[in-house]
Amino acid sequence: MSRFIRSVLLSSAFISMIFFTLAKHAFSQTITEAIKEDNVQNSLSFDEAFQEYLSRIDEYDVAHQDYVLKRAQYLRFKTLKSREEAHSATLVMLQKRDDVIIYYIKALEKRLDEAIGVTNGRRESLNFRTNAEIDWLENHKEVLTSAGSLDDLIEDSDEAKERFSSLQPLVYEVLATISLGRIIDFQERVNDLYNQIKTKVEDIKKEERDEYKLSESKLQTIDRWLFESGNRIIRGEEKQDNAAVKIENLSAISATAFSEYYNSLSLMGETQLFYKEASSFMKEVIREIKIKDQ
User: Fold this and answer.
1) Which of 59, 140, 166, 256 has the most beta carbons within 10 angstroms of its beta carbon?
2) Domain spans of the chain, in order of start
């Protein structure tokens, strides 16, 4: 009897951990804000997957309320009927709990599919691992139906909790990879612009026509801006590489996965700042080229 009571606390704590550790931090902050896509069609498909996830939460809430009611009746009356009803309600609640995680992963996969800057190889590797988690959870739902007693259901529930603990580093790895993809895309655009401007400046230096030539002092100013821009790009790439290493190592850790995930986001934030500074310096180069010598 006492074990059945403890299962209530375990189930509630487990599903709360899903909602608050993953749904709040991962979806609300990282996906919805930090890595929001510009493509409307792609965002719509993610939104649909996310709505499916939210609907599964609603279904779980209903199942959990029924579970609490049936548990209370069983603990009060201790009849065979109340025990059977408690068993049935517990089964449904645990299956709905598995559904919440399954559809969370599916929404995460949809966001990964739409992410920019992520290579096909990296995307396929992560999808292979997330699909394995979905397969395990789908099988676990079937295993639950074979439980002959409340104690059996509790044991099956404990297996899911252990599996969830190992899933968290993978979730953070996917989220961080999506964010890194946007940084990589930014890096490529900044580097492309830098190379174009640098090539243009070299052409200007070779210009022989007086009306198109720039003064030596202006060329020196342009070179300084280009040097500072290139320096910011290099420093940004160093931060980006450090973030990539942390992301690669996320799957090997569990206890500190959450903090390491946010450390990688912090590094990517610093990377983005360096690239933005590089972009602003390149604007100064363009401004110097456009303004005539006095």
Assistant:
1) 140
2) 2-165, 183-290
